[in-house]
Amino acid sequence: MSYTHIQQAAYEANMQLPKLGLVLFTFGNVSAADRGLGVFAIKPSGVPYDELSPDKMVIVDFDGNTVQGSLRPSSDTKTHAVLYKYWEGIGGIVHSHSTYATAWAQSQRDIPIFGTTHADHNTVDIPCAPPMSDEMIKGNYEYETGFQIMNCFNERKLDYREVEMVLVGNHAPFTWGKTPEKAVYNSAVLESVAQMAYLTEQINGNAPRLKDALIKKHYERKHGPDSYYGQ
Amino acid sequence: MSYTHIQQAAYEANMQLPKLGLVLFTFGNVSAADRGLGVFAIKPSGVPYDELSPDKMVIVDFDGNTVQGSLRPSSDTKTHAVLYKYWEGIGGIVHSHSTYATAWAQSQRDIPIFGTTHADHNTVDIPCAPPMSDEMIKGNYEYETGFQIMNCFNERKLDYREVEMVLVGNHAPFTWGKTPEKAVYNSAVLESVAQMAYLTEQINGNAPRLKDALIKKHYERKHGPDSYYGQ
Amino acid sequence: MSYTHIQQAAYEANMQLPKLGLVLFTFGNVSAADRGLGVFAIKPSGVPYDELSPDKMVIVDFDGNTVQGSLRPSSDTKTHAVLYKYWEGIGGIVHSHSTYATAWAQSQRDIPIFGTTHADHNTVDIPCAPPMSDEMIKGNYEYETGFQIMNCFNERKLDYREVEMVLVGNHAPFTWGKTPEKAVYNSAVLESVAQMAYLTEQINGNAPRLKDALIKKHYERKHGPDSYYGQ
Amino acid sequence: MSYTHIQQAAYEANMQLPKLGLVLFTFGNVSAADRGLGVFAIKPSGVPYDELSPDKMVIVDFDGNTVQGSLRPSSDTKTHAVLYKYWEGIGGIVHSHSTYATAWAQSQRDIPIFGTTHADHNTVDIPCAPPMSDEMIKGNYEYETGFQIMNCFNERKLDYREVEMVLVGNHAPFTWGKTPEKAVYNSAVLESVAQMAYLTEQINGNAPRLKDALIKKHYERKHGPDSYYGQ
């Protein structure tokens, strides 16, 4: 079985993280899935970005078992596995500790939708899942992190195909998408939206959320049936 | 009819946006007009900056109709068209989501004139046009955005030849100028002034506006009949 | 008479400003004096940094008269001239609109001495000269700016040889030194100290000034008779 | 006696500081110890980073006496010496004035543990040692700085092998580790954690400290007996 296509995709997507200023040292990881094969390629744990190569990407199945690779996969691998297993439409996942998104996660607050930059990508506040219970933390922690994210989406009736990003309270962001490239794109968008929302509240402590008509308009011109953004 | 001169000008001006740190991904666009021909060249929608070339710039008339080009023009094209149609002195327009200017737009506040960096370019607070009515948003949105900007200038009795920048509430900035280069310059100035004004209020919550004598002095030494800045 | 030595020195010092992130476009200038000849070389007004060359530096005497050069000197030239004329120990001057220092100037506040980074260079809060009177502004503005700076130092009994930087209220910083290199160094130090002081107040609204013993210790280990910093 | 191995190590570690954005000009220094020889190599005082070379690193013993080298060692050398003398497990030390960590030091506040980025490296708030007494400052200042750091750790019952970083009140951070590379790594982690903690408090003035279960989990997955981070 050849996995070089997802190893290459995961490698290229991982290398985007430092270029986009989203990681310090090894504080982030990207995976790329092949749904037909039921596996994903993910960054090895703790390996610096400038020492990565496609063949170092570890192949893991959707239950978190290593299928191929001599290196240990990212310590967050089980979170990726759970999301791939239950959210069938996604082909790439990013975890980072990008500065502004992580600050919101540490603040345990959703990121309010303040403008069209946000609405171009989401129609709702970016959700911050609450910190996990002590039982979940002491148990299969990274596995439970995946369920904490999905529980948050279920409780709020959010669709992972529309909202491709989440903050895990006290921890940091996860983003995803149909492809690893899209997941990386979403991480950069999230960081930018997080910085702008922070500044907005500093400039106007009573800044109102974006009005519904603008949320709808901006989201639909990019994502609706009559979208007219892009080629 | 040859449009290569405005395609080249639009291309070069667009490429300045990432160099100046004013755009993430494709979140911005510049156009360059030829008033004799009654058209402008504008960035194609959603195309990454590193894939741009002069021939990809789309030619559009002042009613927003595509005249030449196989790619779809920027989704903000109609806003550009309206401004060119009614403001006859401008030859270039920039739209960006630059961080600090967008944060002020999201805050729905004018940027107060706090210092000479601001007064070197404007004599007034940088206006923030209010968010549009639901009717305007649901209608011909980008076209109405142009009118929202012009209405704001009319109500405040501002002259677009003196104030070459505006924030659209909850959205982001637009700047313009006699040339696309000047419009890009104005976007960078706006971002810098927006950052300084934010910091000024953080440092002194009661910081006073710049006194009238300094506003007049700095503006006139750059733009008055007896200006003595530059060559 | 040959001025190439100060033209070269002024050129090199000016080129440090963009490298150190202290200027946007042309918003800054450096001059280099030859006290024996009674002149200084200064950046021409409004010329972009990447178009500068040593021979474009304009030679001006300490009364502000151009002695040599076909380009118009910086619009701030008279401020430089006044400082050179009355402060005989300085050989270089910088004016910039660097972000954090300018934000403090716009806030019309001295920068409090909060730590040893500050005390390594100054024993006092960095002074913010008040905005000028309307009469001074409407008169010989740039010339009066020089006197406003010196008046501030006289009133506070500061010595320009010990405190080599000032904020001009609502405007921006000036720094100086025995050489243009030292003046540029001081501009970068000021910007760093200004950013740290801003952050310090955000983190602790009641942060105390540095205690006198530490101010004295740090200043003297770099500048006192028994200094032991450097080679 | 050959010291080239620690000179090379100290040189390489020092050169990481400007690359990681942790120093302006010469405001920082790294040392590398050889415990067998009872000496360390340290940056010479006030020499710009781009003029450094391995042979310029000064060799000093654990009492602060220069053993080899024609240049004067860093003015902070005695602080390094004291820490090496009493903390036998460390092989590298960094002192910097990095922006966010220094702002916390100036604020005289510990950095609260707000998230997993922090818990991946420490289980406690990052301690801020109080400013020294006037007697200590007027005495053997840099030597006493080392004792001030160790007193802080003793009073709080912290282990320098677990907490490899400290803020010295009103001054700036020190970090250390088994190797100079690890000490530099810790300085960059500290700066990132300091920035995130600052932003967290701005976004939520009542942000709670990280819960104990998460502190334990994240620290132990990197540093505990059953750690599973890295290779």
Brief summary of the model shown:
By secondary structure, chain A is α+β, with helices and mostly antiparallel strands. The first copy, chain A, is 41% helix and 15% strand.
Structure description:
- The structure is a homotetramer of 231-residue chains.
- Chain A has helices spanning 4-19, 77-86, 99-107, 116-119, 134-138, 141-155, 180-203, 212-223; strands spanning 28-34, 39-42, 58-61, 66-68, 92-96, 128-129, 165-168, 173-177.
- Chain A has an eight-stranded mixed β-sheet, with helices on both faces.
- With 231 residues, chain A is α+β, with helices and mostly antiparallel strands.
- In chain A, 41% of the residues lie in helices and 15% in strands.
- Chain A contains eight helices and eight strands; from the N terminus they run αββββαβααβααββαα.
- The mean pLDDT of chain A is 96.
- Chain A has one domain (4-223): Class II aldolase/adducin N-terminal domain (L-fuculose-1-phosphate Aldolase).
- Chain A binds chain B through residues 114-117, 185, 188-189, 192, 195-197, 199-200, 202-204, 207-208, 210-211, 213-214, 217, 221, 228-231, and chain B through 24-25, 27, 44-47, 71-72, 75, 97, 99-100, 102-109, 131-132, 134, 137-138, 141, 170-172, 198, 201-202.
